[in-house]
């Protein structure tokens, strides 16, 4: 028998809107980058590498879902490439600065997506 919580969690993911999913992915990127920074701080390079690579995988996934017919997709693609480049630099050099530079940008982007999602929802209900 499946754990009721696991079943609920699976069902909630299945019923998420695209906006909810993007928000969740951004939360996870931010979470992983912060854990990666903490790993660098305590010199646990294996942990920081794991967290940075997971953040990169999510960013790469977001990039792969972009729809090229919209001009904004090109800009987002460039940003995602830059984010991944900076994460790689931090990981290779064991230096937190490149991640500290992009973290506020990622948080800002998350907020922009949340605002856009809110506007889309409001336009569909009213």
Automatic annotation (TrEMBL):
Keywords: Bacterial flagellum biogenesis, Cell projection, Chaperone, Cilium, Cytoplasm, Flagellum. It is found in: Cytoplasm, Cytosol. Pfam families: FliS. Belongs to the FliS family. NCBIfam families: fliS. This is Flagellar secretion chaperone FliS. The gene is fliS.
């Amino acid at each position: 028998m499946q754990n009721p919580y696991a079943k609920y969690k699976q069902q909630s993911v299945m019923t998420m809107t695209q906006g909810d999913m993007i928000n969740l992915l951004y939360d996870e990127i931010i979470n992983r980058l912060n854990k990666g920074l903490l790993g660098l701080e305590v010199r646990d390079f294996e942990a920081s590498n794991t967290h940075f690579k997971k953040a990169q995988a999510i960013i790469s996934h977001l990039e792969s879902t972009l729809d090229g017919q919209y001009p904004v997709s090109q800009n987002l693609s460039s940003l995602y490439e830059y984010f991944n480049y900076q994460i790689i630099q931090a990981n290779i050099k064991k230096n937190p600065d490149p991640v500290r530079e992009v973290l506020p940008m990622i948080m800002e982007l998350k907020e922009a997506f949340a605002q856009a999602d809110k506007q889309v929802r409001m336009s569909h209900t009213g």
